[in-house]
Design brief:
The complex is a heterodimer.
Chain A: E1 3-5, E2 12-14, H1 20-47, E3 54-56, E4 62-65, H2 66-78, E5 86-87, E6 90-91, H3 98-113, H4 120-131, E7 135-136, E8 141-143, H5 146-164, H6 180-198, H7 224-251, E9 264-267, H8 277-308, H9 324-355, H10 362-388, H11 411-437, H12 444-460, H13 471-504, H14 510-531, H15 543-575, H16 588-611, H17 615-621, H18 625-654, H19 662-698, H20 700-703, H21 706-709, H22 712-720, H23 722-747, E10 764-770, E11 776-778, H24 781-785
Parallel strand pairs in A: 3-8
Antiparallel strand pairs in A: 1-2, 3-4, 5-6, 7-8, 9-10, 10-11
Helix pairs in contact in A: 1-14, 2-6, 3-5, 3-6, 5-6, 7-15, 7-17, 8-9, 8-10, 8-18, 8-22, 8-23, 9-10, 9-11, 9-13, 9-18, 10-11, 11-12, 12-13, 13-14, 14-15, 15-16, 16-18, 16-19, 18-19, 18-23, 19-22, 19-23
Chain B: H1 3-37, E1 42-44, E2 49-51, E3 57-64, E4 69-74, H2 76-80, E5 96-100, H3 108-134, H4 138-164
Antiparallel strand pairs in B: 1-2, 2-3, 3-4, 4-5
Classes of the chains: A mainly alpha, B alpha+beta.
Chain lengths: ~775, ~240
C-alpha cells in the first residue's frame, strides 16, 4: 500500500488503492457526458416552441397574450393540477392530459364547424389547419384560423365548468378554480401546449413535440425518428449487453474480485460498540423517517382509493378536504423526504466510523439539521395544502407551492432544503476532514464526501425551473433533478455507502469495494447522464434529444442489467454467514434489505424501466399506469428498501442487544417486499398493459378519460391491491416505525456512555487465525486491514 | 368465451413465466456470488475436493453444523511454499475454503428470491381462481383448468422446500453482560453456541466414500492414498501432515 509524503504538511497520504486508469476513465466519461448535456441545454433554449407575444384569430381579434400563457401555466401549477392531470404527458394520471384534452376538443370542434367527420375535405382541412405553423417570428404573433378561435372560446367555457364544478366526482376539490380570468389564462396555456403539439416545426414535417400526442384528427402519428431511434436503441442494448459480458468474461479476473480466504472475523456485539454523540442523535432522524414513511403510505392509500372509487371515500367526501392532487403531492414529496432523511442520518452515522473520531458538538449540528429538515417538511406540506385550497391568490409568490411534479414545494422551502443539504455535506466534511487529509482524493473517504456533496449540488439545479418559464426548458431542468439527482447521484451516494458498510463489516476488502464503485460510476454515467433525455422525448425539445436520450438510456440498461446482476451477487456476499465468529453477524436484516435492493434494481429499474423506455412505446404509454408501475417498483424497491436497510444498520447499534426486535425486522422485511411485489403485479402492471392496449387501439385520448380510468375492470384491479397494501403498511411499515421508536427510547436513557474516539476495529475485531493445533490466536489488526 | 377468461389466463401465464425467470436469474446470481467467493478455485464433486488456481488440492477437514458448511483446507506445507501465497491467504495453516451443504434456495438470499417466486405464483392462482369462479362454461374451463393445474404444481414444488427447510441462519447468541446493563469494552467469552440437530451427517458423504461406522465430526480426514494429486506425472509423497 503506497504511502506518499505530502511535502507541504508532512502528513502521510495513503496512495490510490486502485489503478489510476479508473480515475481517468471516470473523468473522461463524466466530462464527455456533461459536455453533451450542455450542448443539449443550449439546443433546448434555442429550439423550444416559442411563446408568442399574442395569439390572434383570423379577424385580428386578440385571443390571448404570451403573458396569459405564462400566467396560465402558473395557475396550472400552483393549483396542483400537475398532480391531478398532465401536460405534455408529464404529471399525474387520474385527470386528463390537458395538452391532449385541449387538442382533441379543439380538433373535434373544428371538424364539426367544417362540416363534420363525414366530409372528407373537412377532415383534411382540419389536419392542414392544425399542422400549418402560422407563427410569425417578426411580429411574434400566432394566428389561429376562425374555427380554431371559436374552439378556443368553447374550451374556455368548458374549463370554466370543469374547474368550477361544485361536485367532487372528478377527485378535485369542489369549485377548484372559480376566477374566470384565471381559467381563461389556464386555457390559454393549454392552447399553447396543444399548438406546440400539432404545429410543425419550421422546416420539418413533425410538431415541436415529435408529433405527440397520437391524435388522428390532426394527423399526429409516430414520426420516422420515433421509430428509427427505437430500433437503434434496441440494437444498441443487445449489442452492448453482449459486448459487456464478453469483456467481463475476458478481463473480469483483473477486476480483483478473486476471493480471498474468508478470514474468521469476530464481530463486536452491538452492545460493545460505543457510539458518538452525533451517532446517537441519528436515532431521532430515524424516528422522523419512520413517521414520514407511515404518513406517506397512508396518503398513498388515499390516492389509490381515488383510482378505485373516485366519488367517495367509504361514505365520506374526502375531496373536500384532501382532494386527489393534494394527497398525491404529499405522497410524492414525502417519498423524497423520508428516503433522503434516512440517507442523511446514515451519512452522519458513518462519518465517525470512517474518520475514527468525531469533533465536538457534531451532535448539536445534527440536531439543528433535524430541526431545519422538520421545518422544511412541515412548511412545504402545509404550503402545498394551502396552495391547492386556493389560499395564495398571487401565483408567482415565493410562498406558493411551485407545483411541478416532484418539485412541488414552494420556492422558499426549496431554497432552504438546498441550503440544508449543503449544511449536511458540511457536517460530514467536518467529521471526516482529518481522514480526508490522510487519503488520496480517489480513495473511499473522498468518494464518500464527494458523492455526498453531489446531492445538494444537483438538487440545486432544480432552482433553475421557475413556474412562469417556458414549460419546455423548465422541464429540462426539472428532469436534471428527477433523473440525474435521483437516478445517478443518489445512486452513487448509496453505492458508496453500501460498499463502505460492507468494508466495515469485513465482507469485502477496500480495494474490491472501490473497484465496484468506480465500475458503477463509469457504467451509470456512460448511459445515465445523456440518458436523462429519455424523459424529454415529447416535451418540446428537438429530435436530437429524443435520439440521444433513447440511444444512451438503452445504453443505461446495459450496465444496469449487468451491474444489477453483479450487484445482486455482490450484495448476496454480505448475506453469507460463514465466518467462524464468536459473536453472530449482527446485520442479518440490514443486509437482506440490501439483497432486496439488488433484486428491485433489476426488476423495477431495469425491466419495468426498459419496458417504457423506447420512444415508440413511450409515445403511446407516457402518462399511463406503466409509468406508475416503474416508479413504484424502482423508487420504493431501490431507494425505499435501501433507506430501510440503512436505518436498520444504524438502529442495530442504537438499540441494546436484548431489546433488538429481530422478529419485527423479519416481519418488516418480508411484508414490505411481498406487499410491493403484490402492488406491482396485481394492479400496476396489468392495469398498465390494458391501458397501453387501449391507447394504441382506441386512441390516447380515450385511454386518458376518467371514464376509462375508473371503468369496472380497472376498478377490480385497483381493489385487488388491497391485501398487498395492507400487508405492506401493517406488516412492513408499522414494525419498522416501532423499531425506529425503540431507537429513540433507548437513546433517551441516561448514563449510556458516548465517546468521541472510535477504535480502528469498531465493528469487527482482530481477525482470529486458527492455528494448526486448533487453538486460536489473535493476528494483528494491521495485517487484517492491509489492502 | 368471455375475453376476461383469456386475459386472466394469459396474465397468469405471464406471471408464471416471470416467476420462473426470476427463479432462474436468482439462482444464477447466487451462483455468481459463489464464484466471487471461490474465484480461481474449482470444485471436484466426484472427489469432494477443491483445486486452487495452482492446481493444488484442498481436502475437507471439518463440518460446521452451525453454519451448515463443509470446510476444506490445503496442505500448509504446500501453501507456505507457494509463490502467490500473498494473494491467497494470510494464515500459515493452509488456505481454507467453504462449501455450503444445502442446495438452492437455502441461503438467506435464496429464500428471499424463492419467496418472490411463490408470491407471484400465488397471485397467478388468485387470478385463475377468480376467472374460474366467475366464468365456468366448458370451453372456458378447457383454457383455465390446465393453467391452474400448472400453477398448482409449481406452487407446490416451490413452496414445499421453502417452507420445509429453515433459513440456516445461525442462532443468535446472547453475550453475557453485567447486571446493571453496562458493558465493558472487552469481549467476554460467549456462551456455548447451541448446535441445532441437523440432518444425519452421513448424507454429506458422497456415496463413493461412505464407509459404515464412520461419521464426520471434528476429526481430521484420514490421510489418504485416496487423495493423490490429480495432476499426472507430478507425484509427490502423499502423507497428509497432521
Amino acid at each position: 500500500m503506497a504511502v506518499t509524503q505530502d511535502g507541504s504538511t508532512g502528513v502521510d497520504r495513503r496512495g490510490l488503492l486502485v489503478s489510476k486508469t479508473w480515475l481517468q476513465a471516470v473523468a473522461l466519461v463524466v466530462l464527455l457526458g456533461f459536455a453533451v448535456l450542455g450542448l443539449l441545454a443550449y439546443r433546448t433554449y434555442t429550439a423550444e416552441p416559442p411563446i408568442p407575444d399574442r395569439v390572434v384569430g383570423a379577424d385580428g381579434r386578440v385571443l390571448f397574450t404570451g403573458k396569459d400563457v405564462s400566467r396560465g401555466q402558473q395557475v396550472f401549477l400552483h393549483n396542483g393540477l400537475m398532480e391531478y392531470g398532465s401536460v405534455f404527458g408529464h404529471g399525474a394520471y387520474l385527470g386528463p392530459d390537458f395538452t391532449d384534452d385541449y387538442l382533441h376538443r379543439a380538433a373535434e370542434s373544428v371538424t364539426r364547424q367544417l362540416g363534420g367527420a363525414g366530409a372528407a375535405q373537412g377532415v383534411e382541412q382540419v389536419v392542414r389547419d392544425f399542422q400549418t405553423n402560422r407563427y410569425d417570428q417578426q411580429t411574434k404573433t400566432l394566428t389561429y384560423t376562425r374555427e380554431q378561435a371559436v374552439a378556443f372560446d368553447e374550451n374556455v367555457a368548458y374549463y370554466v365548468d370543469f374547474f368550477g364544478d361544485p361536485k367532487t366526482d372528478k377527485g378535485l376539490r369542489p369549485k377548484a378554480i372559480t376566477d374566470r380570468e384565471q381559467v381563461r389564462q389556464l386555457t390559454a396555456f393549454f392552447s399553447w401546449t396543444a399548438w406546440a403539439a400539432s404545429a410543425h416545426r419550421p422546416g420539418k414535417d413533425y410538431s415541436y413535440t415529435n408529433n405527440w400526442p397520437p391524435e388522428p384528427l390532426v394527423g399526429n402519428a409516430p414520426t420516422a425518428n420515433v421509430v428509427v431511434w427505437s430500433v437503434l436503441s434496441l440494437i444498441a442494448l443487445l449489442a452492448g449487453i453482449g459486448a459487456l459480458f464478453a469483456a467481463f468474461g475476458r478481463w473480469g479476473d483483473r477486476l480483483g474480485w478473486r476471493g480471498r480466504q474468508a478470514d474468521t472475523l469476530s464481530f463486536r456485539s452491538p452492545d460493545a460498540v460505543t457510539l458518538t454523540p452525533a451517532q446517537r442523535a441519528t436515532a431521532w432522524f430515524f424516528l422522523v423517517v419512520g413517521l414520514l414513511f407511515l404518513v406517506q403510505t397512508l396518503v398513498g392509500a388515499a390516492s389509490e382509493h381515488y383510482r378505485a372509487e373516485v366519488t367517495d371515500f367509504f361514505g365520506f367526501d374526502l375531496a373536500k378536504l384532501l382532494p386527489y392532487n393534494l394527497v398525491r403531492t404529499w405522497h410524492l414529496q414525502l417519498a423524497l423526504f423520508w428516503v433522503a432523511a434516512s440517507f442523511l442520518a446514515a451519512g452522519i452515522f458513518l462519518a465517525p466510523i470512517i474518520a475514527g473520531r468525531e469533533p465536538k458538538r457534531q451532535n448539536v449540528l445534527a440536531y439543528v439539521l433535524l430541526g431545519a429538515v422538520a421545518v422544511v417538511v412541515f412548511g412545504s406540506l402545509i404550503g402545498e395544502a394551502l396552495s391547492i385550497h386556493g389560499v395564495f391568490s398571487e401565483p408567482g409568490s415565493f410562498f406558493a407551492s411551485q407545483g411541478f411534479e416532484y418539485l412541488d414545494l414552494a420556492r422558499v422551502w426549496q431554497v432552504l432544503l438546498t441550503v440544508g443539504l449543503f449544511v449536511w455535506a458540511a457536517i460530514l466534511f467536518r467529521g471526516v476532514r482529518g481522514r480526508l487529509r490522510r487519503d488520496h482524493a480517489g480513495n473511499m473517504p473522498w468518494l464518500f464526501f464527494l458523492s455526498a456533496l453531489a446531492i445538494p449540488a444537483f438538487y440545486a439545479v432544480g432552482l433553475l425551473a421557475q413556474s412562469g418559464d417556458n414549460f419546455t426548458h423548465a422541464d429540462f431542468w426539472r428532469f436534471w433533478v428527477v433523473h440525474l439527482w435521483v437516478e445517478d447521484f443518489l445512486e452513487l451516494f448509496t453505492t458508496v455507502m453500501v460498499a463502505y458498510i460492507f468494508v466495515m463489516l469485513g465482507v469485502v476488502r477496500e480495494r474490491v469495494a472501490m473497484t465496484v464503485i468506480y465500475l458503477d460510476i463509469l457504467l451509470y454515467s456512460a448511459g445515465g447522464v445523456i440518458g436523462t433525455m429519455h424523459h424529454l422525448y415529447f416535451s418540446g425539445e428537438p429530435a436530437e434529444h429524443m435520439a440521444l436520450g433513447a440511444f444512451f438510456s438503452a445504453a443505461e440498461v446495459i450496465p444496469l442489467t449487468f451491474l444489477t446482476v453483479e450487484a445482486w451477487s455482490f450484495l448476496q456476499l454480505g448475506a453469507r454467514q460463514e465466518a467462524k465468529s464468536a459473536t453472530p453477524f449482527p446485520h442479518r436484516w440490514a443486509v437482506m434489505f440490501l439483497v432486496a435492493v439488488g433484486f428491485w434494481n433489476f426488476l423495477g429499474a431495469g425491466i419495468f424501466g426498459f419496458l417504457i423506455n423506447l420512444p415508440i412505446v413511450s409515445y403511446y404509454e407516457i402518462g399511463t399506469a406503466l409509468t406508475a408501475n416503474h416508479g413504484h417498483a424502482a423508487m420504493m424497491g431501490v431507494y425505499g428498501m435501501l433507506a430501510m436497510g440503512l436505518a436498520l444498520f444504524c438502529l442495530r447499534y442504537l438499540i441494546p442487544e436484548r431489546h433488538w426486535p429481530d422478529r419485527l425486522a423479519r416481519l418488516s422485511f418480508w411484508s414490505a417486499n411481498l406487499g410491493l411485489l403484490w402492488m406491482c403485479f396485481a394492479t400496476l402492471l396489468p392495469v398498465g398493459i390494458l391501458q397501453l392496449y387501449e391507447s394504441v387501439d382506441s386512441g390516447y385520448h380515450a385511454a386518458r378519460t376518467l371514464k376509462y380510468v375508473t371503468n369496472p375492470t380497472n376498478s377490480v384491479f385497483e381493489w385487488l391491491r388491497l391485501p398487498g397494501d395492507i400487508v405492506f403498511i401493517v406488516g412492513g411499515v408499522l414494525p419498522f416505525l416501532w423499531i425506529c421508536w425503540l431507537g429513540v427510547r433507548h437513546t433517551l436513557r441516561r448514563g449510556t456512555r458516548t465517546t468521541l474516539e472510535e477504535p480502528e476495529d469498531m465493528l469487527f475485531t482482530d481477525i482470529t487465525v486458527p492455528t494448526e493445533d486448533g487453538r486460536e490466536r489473535e493476528a494483528t489488526a494491521a495485517a487484517s486491514s492491509s489492502g | 368465451m368471455h375475453p376476461l377468461v383469456l386475459l386472466a389466463t394469459g396474465y397468469a401465464a405471464l406471471l408464471l413465466a416471470a416467476a420462473a425467470a426470476l427463479e432462474w436469474l436468482a439462482r444464477h446470481t447466487a451462483a455468481r456470488s459463489e464464484r466471487y467467493r471461490t474465484a480461481g478455485f474449482t470444485y471436484r464433486p466426484d472427489h469432494d475436493l477443491w483445486l486452487c488456481p495452482r492446481d493444488e488440492p484442498l481436502w475437507p477437514y471439518e463440518v460446521d453444523r452451525q453454519h451448515r458448511l463443509v470446510r476444506y483446507r490445503a496442505r500448509p506445507s504446500v501453501c507456505n511454499a507457494c509463490p502467490v501465497k500473498a494473494d491467497c491467504t494470510a494464515t500459515h495453516t493452509g488456505r481454507e475454503i467453504v462449501r455450503p451443504i444445502d442446495p438452492w434456495p437455502h441461503s438467506e438470499a435464496g429464500r428471499f428470491h424463492r419467496g418472490v417466486s411463490v408470491t407471484l405464483t400465488v397471485l397467478a392462482a388468485a387470478f385463475l381462481v377468480t376467472a374460474i369462479a366467475t366464468h365456468h362454461r366448458p370451453p372456458e374451463l378447457v383454457v383455465t383448468v390446465p393453467v391452474t393445474a400448472l400453477t398448482g404444481w409449481l406452487l407446490w414444488r416451490w413452496a414445499r422446500d421453502f417452507l420445509r427447510t429453515p433459513s440456516g441462519f445461525p442462532d443468535t447468541v446472547t453475550v453475557g453482560r453485567n447486571d446493571d446493563g453496562a458493558v465493558d469494552g472487552t469481549d467476554r467469552a460467549p456462551a456455548a453456541v447451541p448446535t441445532r440437530p441437523g440432518p444425519v451427517l452421513v448424507d454429506l458423504i458422497p456415496p463413493s466414500r461412505r464407509r459404515p461406522g464412520t461419521a464426520w465430526g471434528f476429526d481430521r480426514q484420514p490421510a489418504g492414498a485416496r487423495y493423490r494429486s490429480t495432476r499426472p506425472g507430478n507425484r509427490r509423497s502423499e502423507e497428509d501432515p497432521q
